[in-house]
């Protein structure tokens, strides 16, 4: 009975984790431009999503952190935070109900409940609460890195179009359409910038872009475009210089990481090579000493010889 319940619990916990992580990694609404401008789509749990999201209290700072990670990961839906909390709390609630039912069914009258289920349930419950957050943070970090990696190419394309006489806003719109296949993350953000430019200004849209991504290169881009527009400078030249600067900085960072790697790898090499070196240097000598002691401890060996009577008589007397 215990084995069957534990097996069912293992499969149920794996199903819950795969459900949450699958929705995060392959979920509907990621990089959805229409969701960012206010379109509606059905939630995963329907009308009870917000009810499950409020089952467990979450501090405002925690909510802000989760909302920032969701936005950086590409979930721009206005109910993305409620959907994330709802899925996590629903999975935790279902798991608690399963563990409680398992304890009730496997505990005989007059017996104490098994601590195995309690420990197993607590461990899985901790994983349900921590693993989705870690996955979300990894998705957000990876998406921001991909956006920063694709930014110089997009700026070069915008620069060519602006130099050819296309307005900056139209250039952003065209580049967002061209990058949907090669760089979908940056294409989504540029499409959002284009939609926000329709309601306001390009400078404000770029500031919102920098606020969403919170990456140094994006923040510098928004500041550069704002200064160039306010001072009446050449935007095309500024974009070209900025893209060259981003590539130069990226190359310098790569060289810095390469130089640090040679120093960091020194300690593992020393720790891993020192024992074999000692074995190679001292091993033959230790084996020779071992063979010597084994040989001399045998009969007629150096350590097994006993002095005879004549040698004892020749000893000087005191």
UniProtKB/TrEMBL annotation:
<dbReference type="Pfam" id="PF00482">
    <property type="entry name" value="T2SSF"/>
</dbReference>
<feature type="transmembrane region" description="Helical">
    <location>
        <begin position="80"/>
        <end position="105"/>
    </location>
</feature>
<dbReference type="GO" id="GO:0005886">
    <property type="term" value="C:plasma membrane"/>
</dbReference>
<keyword id="KW-0812">Transmembrane</keyword>
<dbReference type="InterPro" id="IPR018076">
    <property type="entry name" value="T2SS_GspF_dom"/>
</dbReference>
<feature type="transmembrane region" description="Helical">
    <location>
        <begin position="117"/>
        <end position="136"/>
    </location>
</feature>
<keyword id="KW-0472">Membrane</keyword>
<feature type="transmembrane region" description="Helical">
    <location>
        <begin position="265"/>
        <end position="287"/>
    </location>
</feature>
<keyword id="KW-1133">Transmembrane helix</keyword>
<feature type="domain" description="Type II secretion system protein GspF">
    <location>
        <begin position="155"/>
        <end position="282"/>
    </location>
</feature>
<keyword id="KW-1003">Cell membrane</keyword>
<protein>
    <submittedName>
        <fullName>Bacterial type II secretion system protein F domain protein</fullName>
    </submittedName>
</protein>
